[in-house]
């Protein structure tokens, strides 16, 4: 029985060392070295090898090396294969940092002050405490809940919107399409941390923007496919939205002449809101493998029908 890793060499080297130390009975191989294909039971990858069923006929678990699994073509994976997304504290902590930075920047009007600086203007806006700013997080999963906890510590008036009903301390919780408008109407800074699925593709579009208060802000740290770009540009143009912080695009990077590069009300970062941290992620993988060995439920199992 072997564990196969397909991904950047640096992370592979850290994991190989952790596996050798903590689980020496499970040989760790790095693609394209696969040894006996019939021995490969576990694969960790962002992009699995082509024709996976033929290449790795005894594969039991596919671990995504990221929190998202939208990069997988589920129809090309064997039906019985368990898919597990990355749940690890290093990735969660970095996402909390990014969301806190973006929300604080928008709350303290940094896009406006940067524009003012560039045009030589010294003009103060009213300074308001975080408690008067209503932040709303779409997607109350592993990352959404952690971001909300951090935003609460910063003093923001927090709400979350989710598919199923959640109950988070100090957070107004909304669920489903029926409560979306109420959630949006009380949201000054909207943060998207939804997974990309057929249901959520294009959700950040005119329908959502029109339900926000005039001048609201957007942070998209999930996937570019959530955003309808033309609707964002129109909402920034007509003042419905006043600024957007975007960490993700579709495709990445956007074309060189894409309006996002130079838009005065858009801050663009190159998909760095978070990243799997090799050491903590290696521990999380090993924990999951131990759970599997003991017949316990795994952390982060994906519902392939829902797509996340
Ligand atoms: P989880 O699977 O833990 O959480 C997803 C949450 O979204 C769940 O609470 C789920 O609800 C909710 N949800 C799913 N579909 C809908 C819907 N149609 N309507 C309302 N709510 C919905 O994911 P994570 O929190 O771990 O990650 C979220 C995403 O963040 C990833 O999929 C990835 O795209 C993105 N990401 C981006 C990174 C970056 O650097 N930019 C880094 C890491 C992740 P329910 O509780 O009912 O299941
Ligand atoms: C992820 C990502 O899904 O890096 O982990 O976007």
- The third-level CATH topology of the largest domain is Rossmann fold
Strand coverage percent: 15-25%
Major β-sheet annotation: 7 strands, parallel
* Secondary-structure-derived class: alpha/beta
Query: Which residue ranges are poorly predicted, with pLDDT under 50 across at least 5 consecutive positions?
Result: none
Strand ordering within the main sheet: 8-7-6-9-10-11-12
Mean pLDDT: 98
Shape-level CATH architecture of the largest domain: 3-Layer(aba) Sandwich
Quickly count the domains.
2
The number of strands is 12
How would you describe what is shown here?
With 308 residues, the protein is α/β, with parallel strands linked by helices. It has two domains: 2-88 and 276-293, Rossmann fold; 90-268, Rossmann fold (3-Layer(aba) Sandwich). Helices cover 31% and strands 18% of the residues. It has helices spanning 9-22, 52-55, 89-107, 110-118, 142-153, 180-185, 206-211, 229-237, 278-293; strands at residues 2-6, 28-30, 40-45, 61-64, 82-84, 134-138, 157-162, 172-175, 189-192, 216-220, 241-246, 266-268. The longest helix has 19 residues, at 89-107. The model has no long low-confidence stretch (mean pLDDT 98). The protein binds NADPH dihydro-nicotinamide-adenine-dinucleotide phosphate and oxalic acid (OXD). Residues 66-68, 95, 139-144, 162-164, 193-197, 199-200, 221-223, 247-248, 271, 273-274, 308 line the site of NADPH dihydro-nicotinamide-adenine-dinucleotide phosphate.
């Amino acid at each position: 029985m072997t564990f196969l890793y397909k991904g950047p060499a640096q992370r592979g080297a850290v994991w190989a060392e952790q596996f050798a130390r903590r689980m020496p009975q499970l040989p760790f191989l790095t693609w394209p070295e696969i040894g006996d294909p019939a021995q490969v039971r576990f694969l960790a990858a962002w992009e699995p090898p082509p024709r996976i069923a033929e290449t790795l006929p005894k594969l039991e678990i596919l671990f995504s090396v990221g929190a998202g699994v939208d990069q997988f073509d589920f129809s090309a994976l064997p039906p019985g294969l368990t898919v597990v997304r990355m749940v690890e504290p290093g990735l969660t902590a970095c996402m909390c940092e990014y969301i806190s930075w973006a929300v604080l920047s928008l709350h303290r009007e940094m896009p406006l002050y940067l524009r003012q600086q560039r045009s030589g203007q010294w003009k103060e806006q009213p300074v308001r405490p975080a408690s008067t700013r209503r932040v709303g997080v779409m997607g109350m999963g592993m990352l959404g809940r952690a971001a909300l906890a951090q935003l609460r510590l910063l003093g923001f008036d927090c709400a979350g919107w989710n598919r199923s009903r959640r109950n988070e301390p100090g957070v107004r919780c909304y669920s489903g399409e029926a409560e979306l408008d109420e959630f949006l109407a009380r949201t000054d800074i909207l943060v998207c941390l939804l997974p990309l699925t057929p249901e959520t593709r294009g959700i950040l579009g005119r329908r959502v923007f029109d339900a926000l208060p005039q001048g609201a802000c957007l942070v998209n740290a999930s996937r570019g496919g959530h955003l309808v770009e033309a609707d964002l540009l129109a909402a920034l143009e007509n003042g419905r939205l006043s600024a957007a912080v975007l960490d993700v695009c579709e495709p990445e990077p956007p074309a060189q002449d894409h309006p996002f590069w130079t838009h005065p009300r858009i801050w663009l970062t190159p998909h760095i809101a978070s990243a799997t941290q090799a050491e903590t992620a290696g521990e999380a993988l090993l924990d999951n493998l131990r759970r599997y060995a003991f017949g316990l439920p795994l952390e982060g199992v994906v519902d392939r029908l829902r797509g996340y």
